[in-house]
Inverse folding.
């Protein structure tokens, strides 16, 4: 392996092609580096269903144990199940997954005890530096007394904890189609949903890290087509899709129409505020719908706007004591889940909300879906800064708009807003626009795209 690990150590995690970019010997170095940086004397490790995951996970465990650390392996799990174990056991954790990336990829999501995130500024850069140094000079010396490696099953405890956070007592019988995309939802859903009055129609529950049916990335509309069709065929009440490591959930209504993650954020926010006596801070990133802060205020809460990305959300959750946070990408964060993200808990909230009344999901979410959004539109550009400057110049002198640069550039008017942000890893600008009606949204979207693509 090359000593320069900048291509695989990203802002929030480790991710790359196996074995071309990283392999088991490097995973062993990452394990040793992780315990040096965290100072832990015990850690917990889990992995997804990718063919390379068990070997990489065990190599990481060996590297950690050789430094005297006791390792608890929880085996096959979703990412939020690993966060549960980190929180419940109060141990730093490592999850081996590449989320929704293709089969040849793998990665590591790392956290400190209590599921606190590890990113570039909170330990990941030091882990990278140690692994780079050791890959050139040789692994660190094992300690005289190596740690132990033991196994523990946390699935039933994880499921019970999630169900304890949602009132499911008034849930009426529902028919739900779940597309696990051959990912970890196929492992966790049967246990989490067990005993609930649900008729479960499973799709692609077989754990298969080669993803034979479709990519496990429900953010891409192409990967929702099978679920939408099955919901209509089954006359189901709703459909739920999980990504590869099952930490994100996407919802479709009884017609098979997607429910926007902003509407799910608003719905769950209202429910979490009700649980907390109508008080609390709710985090939302700056490209969620206007609906979210509106609903939060209507239910007595305080909305707090933040940059896009889980490290910013989790930091703001901890700083403000927020009870819930949501993103446009279908990541949902809960104070009662150690500020970590869990799509499964969001899914239980949607089931409880739908099953606690008699109407269809489309009618229920209409209250939370008040505006017309463009979705995220990516444009390849030669010079991101130049195009952002051009947009700022075009709108900066207008009296009817306000500009802010919290994350990229957001342009806001009375009846519409749009945000343009640069990708950190590709020569792309990402546009999100929203308006009170379709014609206004189309007009402002096309105006912005014309400048971006000029």
């Amino acid at each position: 392996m090359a000593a320069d690990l900048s291509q695989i150590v990203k802002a929030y995690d480790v991710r790359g092609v196996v074995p071309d970019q990283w392999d088991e010997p490097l995973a062993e170095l990452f394990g040793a580096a992780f315990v040096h940086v965290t100072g832990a004397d015990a850690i917990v490790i889990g992995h997804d269903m990718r063919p390379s995951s068990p070997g990489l996970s065990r190599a990481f465990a060996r590297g950690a144990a050789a430094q005297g650390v006791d390792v608890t392996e929880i085996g096959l799990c979703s990412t939020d199940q690993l966060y549960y174990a980190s929180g419940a056991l109060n141990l730093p954790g490592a999850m081996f997954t590449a989320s929704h990336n293709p089969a040849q990829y793998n990665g590591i999501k790392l956290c400190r005890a209590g599921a606190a995130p590890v990113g570039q500024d909170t330990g990941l850069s030091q882990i990278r530096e140690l692994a780079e140094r050791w890959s050139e000079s040789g692994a660190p010396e094992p300690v005289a007394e190596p740690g132990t490696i033991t196994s523990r099953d946390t699935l039933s405890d994880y499921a019970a904890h999630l169900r304890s956070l949602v009132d499911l007592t008034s849930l009426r019988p529902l028919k739900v189609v779940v597309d696990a995309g051959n990912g970890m939802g196929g492992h966790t859903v049967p246990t989490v949903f067990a005993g609930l009055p649900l008729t479960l129609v499973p799709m692609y529950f077989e754990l298969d890290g080669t993803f034979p049916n479709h990519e496990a990335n429900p953010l891409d509309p192409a990967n929702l087509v099978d679920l939408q069709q099955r919901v209509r065929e089954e006359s189901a009440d709703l459909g739920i899709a999980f990504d590869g490591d099952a930490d994100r959930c996407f919802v479709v209504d009884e017609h098979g129409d997607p429910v926007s993650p902003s509407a799910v954020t608003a719905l769950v926010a209202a429910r979490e505020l009700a649980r907390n006596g109508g008080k609390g801070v709710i985090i939302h990133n700056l490209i969620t719908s206007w609906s979210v802060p509106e609903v939060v205020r209507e239910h007595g809460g305080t909305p707090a706007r933040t940059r896009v990305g889980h490290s910013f959300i989790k930091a703001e959750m901890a700083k403000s004591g927020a009870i819930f946070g949501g993103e446009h990408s279908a990541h949902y964060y809960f104070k009662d889940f150690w500020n970590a993200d869990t799509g499964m808990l969001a899914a239980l909230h949607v089931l409880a909300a739908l099953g606690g009344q008699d109407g269809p999901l489309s009618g229920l979410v209409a209250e939370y879906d008040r505006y017309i959004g463009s979705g995220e539109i990516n444009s390849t550009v030669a010079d991101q800064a130049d195009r952002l400057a051009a947009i700022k110049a075009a709108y900066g002198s207008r009296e009817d708009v306000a500009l802010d640069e919290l994350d990229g550039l957001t342009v806001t008017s009375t009846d519409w807003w749009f945000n343009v942000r640069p990708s950190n890893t590709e020569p792309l600008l990402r546009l999100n626009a929203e308006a009170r009606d379709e014609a206004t949204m189309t007009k402002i979207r096309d105006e912005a795209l014309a400048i971006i693509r000029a």
Notes: Residues 14-153 form a domain with the Alpha-D-Glucose-1,6-Bisphosphate; Chain A, domain 3 fold (CATH 3.40.120.10). The CA atoms of residues 382 and 410 lie 21 Å apart. The chain has a mean pLDDT of 96.
